[in-house]
Amino acid sequence: MRFSLLRRYFMAGLIITIPLLVTLYVLGAIFNFLNTFIGRHLHRLAEDSPLYAVPGLGVILSIGLILLVGVVGSTVVGRKLIGYGEALVSQIPVVKIIYPSAKQVVDLLLSPKEIAFKRVVLVEYPRPGVYVLGFITAEGMAETHQRTGKELMHIFIPYSPVPMTGMLVLVPREEVMELNLSVDEGVKLIVSGGVLIPDRQKQTEEAA
Fold first, then answer.
1. What's the maximum distance between 2 C-alpha atoms anywhere in the chain?
2. Residue 153 burial by Cβ neighbours in a 10 Å radius (0-12, 13-18, 19+)
3. pTM score, whole prediction
4. Residues 26 and 96 grouped into a single domain
5. What's the pLDDT tens digit per position in 152-177?
């Protein structure tokens, strides 16, 4: 089996398993907080298990499990089962809050699909004289143009340091300033809180 295929299966497995693990971790933390004695007892049983002493066994089993999930999740039947599982999860009171959030984060960081952000821009928000970074997600809608008489760009304003959360603002095209930044550079800048400035921008800053 080619390495690229293994890598694809492994990434698919991560995208499927990490949200589930995060959900289980949060639920486990809540459970252990409410049931301290039981949690300690279960931990003691795990330590007494003969397999607990095998070095690296947990890592090997985890990698194998992720690959297995990736292989199954890449099939038509596997995708349908995952869809049914996510639909079921969305009905569970606490889990339906945790799982979708974890899945959105993982999809943004690990999914091979391209992010829907088109270009990095600068807009005045929330008041004149204050600027924020944003991403163009669409060139506008016909109805908003008809009702306002302006060509309104769809700008996603991300929250730092989690760029997959934010808000949508509709800004007239003439008020949108495009920046010489790639989408990846814009995301890094937001995640780092403005620290990770591209080298060419630093040089421009110094020259100015």
1. 73
2. buried
3. 0.48
4. yes
5. 999 999 888 767 678 999 999 999 99
